[in-house]
Amino acid sequence: MSPSPPVMSEPAFFALRTNGIKVNYWVVCRRKLWLFSKGVRMEHTADRVLLGRLLHEEAYRHQGRREVMLDDLVRIDVVEGGERVLEVKYSSRLAQASRLQVAYYLLYLRHMGAGDLVGEVRYPRERRREEVRLTPQVEAQVAEALRGVAQVEALPSPPPAPFTPLCRACAYAELCWG
User: Fold this and answer.
1) Which residues make Cβ contacts (< 8 Å) with residue 38, sequence separation at least 6?
2) To the nearest 5 percent, what fractions of the chain are helix, strand and coil?
3) What is the model's pLDDT at position 7?
4) Using CA atoms, how far apart are residues 10 and 18, in angstroms rounded to an integer?
5) Which of 37, 44, 95, 96 registers the highest number of CB atoms within 10 A of its CB?
6) For residue 167, what is the DSSP state?
7) Angstrom distance (rounded) from CA 117 to CA 101
8) What would the pLDDT profile of 47-75 be if each residue is shown by its tens digit?
9) Where are the beta strands (DSSP E) in the chain?
10) Strands across the sheet containing 74-80
């Protein structure tokens, strides 16, 4: 497969590269992204995160290429057959954020010379999977997210966050809502 022309030039992409969880947090909550980018890590206190970690350890154990780390930025859950990048999630509740995270991985890998791979978000508990492919529209969404992550990280203080139903289960709820 030949690489498609990128939406962002090579220098622009690498100037904005980040890690996948920040792309995910940019969709979910900008305040959470800001806190995470400043080194505030609350995930270890959240039961849902622990359940997700257990699921991740048990799911796809038979796959040989798990937890592939690239450049201390991109941690791919599973590489299946050399052409499919899998992200394992506990729930599809934040599917849009998960898809954008996988799309970022695909774009990152393309810029690293891997060509056009296919991504997939898998929800083992729901016995569900969603395929992710880079299209010009998806690439533009990733580029917007990368610029957005950089903007949030540059803020001198955390951005305000509206209280949503997601906040109740968030590991950062105590910092935001006391």
Assistant:
1) none
2) 50, 15, 35
3) 63
4) 14
5) 37
6) G
7) 14
8) 666 666 666 666 666 666 667 888 888 88
9) 65-70, 74-80, 84-88, 118-123, 128-132
10) 65-70, 74-80, 84-88, 118-123, 128-132
Q: Match 């039961």 to its residue by tokens.
A: 47
Amino acid, single-letter form, for residue 172: Y
- Contacts of residues 34-43 at CB distance under 8 Å and 24 or more positions apart, as own/partner, are 34/152, 34/153, 34/155, 34/158, 34/159, 35/158, 35/172, 35/175, 37/149, 37/152, 37/153, 40/172, 40/175, 42/171, 42/172, 42/174, 42/175, 43/171
Which is nearest to 49 in space by CA: 173, 171, 178? 171
For residue 161, the SS3 value is coil
CB 18 within 8 A of CB 146: yes
- pLDDT score, position 72: 83
CA 135/CA 111 separation, integer angstroms: 15
Residue 165 has which token pair? 């139903």
Domain boundaries, the chain: 10-25+52-155
